[in-house]
Design a protein that fits this description.
Shape: globular
Largest sheet: 10 strands, mixed
Radius of gyration: 19 Å
Number of strands: 14
Distance between the termini: 36 Å
Bound molecules: threonylcarbamoyladenylate, magnesium ion
Structural class: alpha/beta
Helix content: 25-40%
Strand order of the largest sheet: 7-1-2-6-3-5-4-8-9-10
Order of helices and strands: EEHEHHEHEHEHEEEHEEHEEHEH
Strand content: 15-25%
Number of helices: 10
Length: 302
C-alpha cells in the first residue's frame, strides 16, 4: 500500500488509509472522501517509540494517557516533527496520532515501513462506517482493497486530546469517556465552540448525517405526536414501547452506554436504508459515553 488506499478496520470505525509519508497517496484520501483540505488527518502507529519521530514535544500528561489507553480510542494532538508532511496536518504545527486496537491493523502497521494516515472511511459529512459492508456501500470499486476485520468493537471515533502547554483539552468526545481521561490527568478543558473554524476542523457542526432528517428529542411521545402523519423511525437508548413508530431500534435493552455506542452508527445506517420520512432519536444521559453519543446525534440532526 505504498501509493494506494486501503480501508482498514479499527476498534472505533473503519479508516481509509494511505502511506502518511507519501503526499500523492494522502491526496487520494482527500479526493475519495470529498474532504476539504483544511481538515487534518490522524497518523496511526503500532509502537509508542514511533511518537518520537512524529512529534517534536510530548507533554508528560500525553505520555500518561498514551500508556493508559493505547492501543485504544485515543488520539493525541502534539507539536509535529518536520518529518510529517503538511498535507497531513493541513498546514498546522500539530499532528494527530493514535495507536488503534485491532489485531489485523496492528499486524498491518507492524509490517509497513511507514506510518499510516487514516480518516474515517465515509464520504465527507456522512455517517461513519463500523463494518466492511458500510465501507463497500460508500466506496465500492473506487478503492483497491477493504480489509474486513468484522464489526467495530467501540463504534465511536477516538476521543481527541490536545494540549495548551501542559494542560489537556478534549477536542472531540469519543470512545473513551471524559471521566476516564480525567481519572488519569485530572480536570480537562473542553473545546466546545461549534464555530466555523474549530481547532479540530473536523468538528464542523454538520457531520455524521443520515440522508433521512433526524431530530433529537427529550420526549419521544411528544415529538412523535408533532409528526404523526409521517413514516418515523425511533431510536432509543433502552427498552421502550413505541407502537406509533414505523420502525423501532433499541440500542441497548440492558441500558449499557458501551453497547449503545457500539451499535449507534450501524443502526443509523439501517434506519437510513428503511425509506423513512424522519428519524427521532432519544437524547442520552449526559455522562460517560452518553456524552459522546449525544455529540454525534446533535451533529446528525443538522
Ligand atoms: O477513531 C478515529 O479517530 C478514526 C479511526 C479511523 O482512527 N479516525 C477518524 O478520523 O475519526 P477523522 O479524520 O474522521 O477525524 C479526525 C479528526 C478531525 O476532526 C480532525 O479535524 C482532527 O481529528 N484532527 C486531526 N489532526 C488534527 C490536528 N493536528 N489538530 C486538531 N485536530 C486534528
Ligand atoms: Mg470522520
Amino acid at each position: 500500500m505504498a501509493n494506494e488506499l486501503v480501508a482498514i478496520p479499527t476498534e472505533t470505525v473503519y479508516g481509509l488509509a494511505a502511506n502518511a509519508l507519501n503526499e500523492k497517496a494522502v491526496q487520494k484520501i482527500f479526493e475519495a472522501k470529498g474532504r476539504p483540505r483544511f481538515n487534518p488527518l490522524i497518523v496511526h502507529i503500532y509502537d509508542l517509540a514511533q511518537l518520537n519521530g512524529l512529534a517534536c514535544y510530548i507533554p508528560e500528561k500525553a505520555v500518561r494517557l498514551a500508556k493508559k489507553f493505547w492501543p485504544g480510542p485515543l488520539t493525541l494532538i502534539l507539536p509535529k516533527s518536520s518529518k510529517v508532511p503538511e498535507i497531513i496536518t493541513a498546514g498546522k504545527p500539530t499532528v494527530g496520532i493514535r495507536m488503534p486496537n485491532h489485531p489485523l491493523t496492528l499486524e498491518l502497521l507492524k509490517g509497513l515501513p511507514f506510518p499510516v494516515a487514516a480518516p474515517s472511511a465515509n464520504p465527507f459529512t456522512r455517517v461513519s462506517p463500523t463494518s466492511a459492508d458500510h465501507v463497500a456501500g460508500y466506496f465500492g470499486d473506487r478503492i483497491p482493497a477493504i480489509l474486513d476485520g468484522g464489526p467495530c468493537e467501540v463504534g465511536l471515533e477516538s476521543t481527541i486530546v490536545g494540549f495548551d502547554g501542559e494542560a489537556p483539552i478534549v477536542y472531540r468526545k469519543g470512545g473513551i469517556s471524559v471521566e476516564a481521561i480525567e481519572a488519569v490527568v485530572g480536570k480537562v478543558q473542553m473545546e466546545t465552540k461549534n464555530n466555523k473554524a474549530p481547532i479540530a476542523p473536523g468538528m464542523l457542526l454538520k457531520h455524521y448525517s443520515p440522508r433521512t432528517p433526524l431530530i433529537v428529542s427529550n420526549n419521544i411521545k411528544k415529538t412523535l405526536k408533532d409528526h404523526s402523519s409521517k413514516k418515523i423511525g425511533v431510536l432509543t437508548f433502552s427498552a421502550m414501547a413505541v407502537p406509533e413508530a414505523t420502525v423501532l431500534k433499541v440500542l441497548s435493552p440492558k441500558a449499557s452506554l458501551e453497547e449503545a455506542a457500539k451499535r449507534l452508527f450501524a443502526t443509523l445506517h439501517e434506519l437510513d436504508e428503511a425509506g423513512l420520512d424522519l428519524i427521532i432519536a432519544e437524547r442520552f444521559p449526559e455522562e460517560g459515553l452518553g456524552r459522546s453519543i449525544n455529540d454525534r446525534l446533535k451533529r446528525a440532526q443538522q
